[in-house]
Amino acid sequence: MDPMKHSYDRLGEEAYHILNDITPTGNIPPDAALLTPSLGPDKAPARPKKDLYVLLRDNATKNTTLTKLWNEANSVPPWVNWDQIAKGQECFYRYGGAILTGLAFHSLLGGMGAGRVVETLARTGLGASPQKQPATGCCEWIFFPANAMAHCASETTQHILQCTRSLDSIKPDGEGHASSIRVRLLHAAVRQRIMKLAKQRPTYYDVANWGIPINDLDCIATITTFSATLIWLSLPRQGIWMSNQEIEDYTALWRYIAYLTGTPTDPFESPDKAKRMMQVLLLYEVQPTMTSRILANNVITSLKDQPPSFASRSFLEINARWLNGNRLADELGLGQPGLYYWALMAGQCIIFMTLVYTYRCIPFLDRRKIKVCAVFEALID
Length: 381
What we know:
Largest sheet: 2 strands, antiparallel
Distance between the termini: 37 Å
Radius of gyration: 20 Å
Helix content: 55-70%
Strand order of the largest sheet: 1-2
Number of strands: 2
């Protein structure tokens, strides 16, 4: 896997360089404002004014690189089956509550256990205190308060909702399709900024040990946490198992999203390959650091007492412990709620199981629930 730490989406990077020359200096997509590396509050970049997706669309015919990226993004790979993609989207709403729980406490919070990856996240702003970097021994300020973490999580959730809302949304010219291309350009923007700062100050980011920021392996890991990790870990730990056909459909959906975001799609050719990639990543990438602890606790702080559930810190921590296990939770510095909260979590799982299996056994109710959930998500987006 080591070579993938030093490979990345070169086409997206080249296109970003061109688009960045068209826009005011330092411009990046609107939803990237809080993901821009910062050396502190006094040096935060000005909020961007233009949308790189719109710039790409409007200038696609004016440059060969932009044309290549635009054509690639709007070309549908031969392995895409739209009926299967639509069924994969339905899976998201069929298991909505359990999936959102898994995304928040397993994919996002549990993902902070990947010690190498969090060094990139920290330099996009997810930390809030100085600490010593193990590889360099120097003290770096990593600035990103918990409320910014909440915004980051909200943007990620919004992207997922846009990609799963309807089949038209994920097709070319759709909202989810455009959002995925924005993510691809956002990755290029953040990568360029970190590398620029690393050249100015070599101690800022250790390329040799951590790889290129937002490299191919990082992107594969992200898609894996949104797909395979949910299928084989998050949902089963809540007492829910997808059918074999649902697993194939949901994996196919995320393979297409990987394609749109410039992520290698080979690891998602089949459910078996996706599962093997998940297992390899869990074995070699989950090595929590002090940075991991800071970011994991920022996740909890950002979600505490927030609407609509206004969940307490202890209840959030028990969700994280239930899904990630006590060993990882301890290494991330999470609290240890008492038996009362373990009982609450068990009750939540029972409720999810009862609703999921009841609706899934009655086709009419299943279709109605999926439709209602999709409409509701569109309203709150």
